[in-house]
Amino acid sequence: MAGLFFVQTRDRTFADSALAVARKQFALHGSSQFTERAIPGWHLIHAPYILGGPDTFFADGEDFVAVMGTPTCDGKMGRAALQAMLSMDRPDWDRLGGPFVALVHRQGRTRLFTDYLGLFQIFHDSAMTLFSTSLLAAANALPRLSFDVQGVYELAFNVVPLGNDSVFAELKTLGPDALVELGEAGARVEELAKPLPDQWTEPQVAPHVDKLMEIISTHVREFGDRIHCALSGGIDSRLMLAALRAAGSRPQVYVYGGTDSDDVAVSRAIAAAEGFHVEWLDKEAWRTVEPDAFPEQVEANYQGYDGLANYGELFENGANAHARALRHPGGALAGSAACAEVFRNFFFLPNRRFRAVDVARAFFARYAKSDVTEMFDEAAFLRGIEDKMLAAIGRPGDRGRLPRPLVEQIYPRVRCRALFGREISLETRIGPYMFPFLDHQWVAGAMTVPLGIKHAGRFESMMLKAIDPVLAAYPSVYGHDFAGPPNLKHRFSEWATRIRPMALRQRSYALRRRLGPVADEHGGLLTPEYMGRVIDLDYPAMRRFFRIERIADSGLMRRISNLEYLAKRLGSKLAA
């Protein structure tokens, strides 16, 4: 496993045990080589990308920088970027980009910091004596753990815990606002200000296109055609492909989906018309796993997902690990088009002021109270999410109505950080990962675009057309192309959500459950014949939190089952 792990050495017995755990865990994840450094009061383990890629460790005498993720600096990557980072007294955000966590030891001082939005996950204990990019390494290094009630319910209902929380009370993730200085006496935290624009301006396409091309070109200079990117039937992946081609790359294009997938049909039609190959993978049909082989597959998934998979995909057939390897042959770069929604109205809220709790109720209240035990306190759950939102946008304790531009920051600072931060942290163990639509400078630009022109992807379509009008003109799964405005059906579908009353938005999931079972697209081998081989179907750990027999949502059950499997693997270390 590519990763970082470091521990305070004041308690030598604990430090030696924790380091042994980390070495073993990294090896289980697939790493075969490590760099280790001792600095005053601390010991560091660093492992590079499993399948290769740009340098992630650079030393100049006693000074060094160790990173995880895919940082850029001064428009450079790899060794050149690390050298530039090592020359800085402090992080210079005008020069830095990409998702990463960095440990910089320079002139006798050691500092730890994340990327601008805190996307890359590094876990630490409450006393900050241990830091790890691997959840399992951190969890197995600590003597005792207990489930965090808020974290468990956030993962179950919304796929991942939000803010700095994990599913364990004893482990947090380092926030974007923290710069940690490591010394012989321990860890000292300095708060960082990382503002985003909170006013809309006159929308102009060219500056945003120029910034995107600057970000993409940095990666193309390093990798050329050794870039793998998806192409679906929507706009985000098409914008990514357009920018890559405009920067001079001819990336390797792929699509995921079944034989009846609209994404597959649209992407293959575009590829045929443009004369390039698109690799198609039907993950569900890729491999059949017999029930007796299921425990071995789940164990492999458990290591590959570092204990907790987004969407609880621990119980799939191994296709995701296969797909990740295909995206990084020989250290090639994978590119994700996720989070281009910063240029759309992601929460589908009207253009007026909202309280943070309104956003929590409209988007994060995806639960039916019949599914939960008395452990669930609805008011406390929503207040917890509200507090995380307010902290993220720099308005702690502000229960009033927020300016609408500020509400837009909740998407990149809270939703994207949690969901895609986990994805980034897992993917970059394998190889380098480009996430241009969450680069903080592009996000900052998106925060200046007025809401009205974002609806139904209007502004994003304008950017795509400016970069590649030919690619924009192909049909999409929305029933229209991106060379012109969105059609009436697309505009109406978003408008119908925006006008829905808040009380109805909060209850929409529970109302949907009353109509029958709910499923999602992430599948998995979830029948008792399979699941009974890997977990106790009585769910002894999760029964404290959920009324298992009442749940009729396969995605929710998959995530709960992931937590149950995690509890089983941690055994007596996990407090009841």
Describe the structure.
By secondary structure, the chain is an alpha+beta fold. It has four domains: 3-147 and 167-191, 4-Layer Sandwich (Glutamine Phosphoribosylpyrophosphate, subunit 1, domain 1); 205-305 and 319-343 and 413-498, Rossmann fold, CATH 3.40.50.620; 356-412, no CATH class; 514-569, no CATH class. Helix content is 39%, strand content 15%. The chain has 21 helices and 19 strands. It has a six-stranded antiparallel β-sheet, with helices on one face. It has a six-stranded antiparallel β-sheet with strand order 4-5-8-9-13-14, covered by helices on one side. Helix 5 packs antiparallel against helix 15 (440-446), helix 6 packs parallel to helix 16 and helix 11 runs parallel beside helix 19 (502-514). The chain is globular and about 65 Å long.
Query: What is the fold named in CATH at topology level of the largest domain?
Result: Rossmann fold
Q: Give the count of helical stretches.
A: 21
Rg value: 23 Å
Report, as a whole number of angstroms, the end-to-end distance.
Answer: 30 Å
**Main beta-sheet strand count, sense and barrel state:** 6 strands, antiparallel
Low-pLDDT ranges: none
Range of strand content: 5-15%
Helix content: 25-40%
CATH class of the largest domain: Alpha Beta
- Quaternary state reads single chain
Structural class: alpha+beta
CATH architectural designation of the largest domain: 3-Layer(aba) Sandwich
Mean pLDDT across every amino acid position: 95
Number of strands: 19
> What count of domains describes the coordinates?
4
Strands ordered across the widest β-sheet: 2-3-1-11-10-12
CATH superfamily of the largest domain: HUPs
- Estimate the global geometry from the Cα principal axes: globular
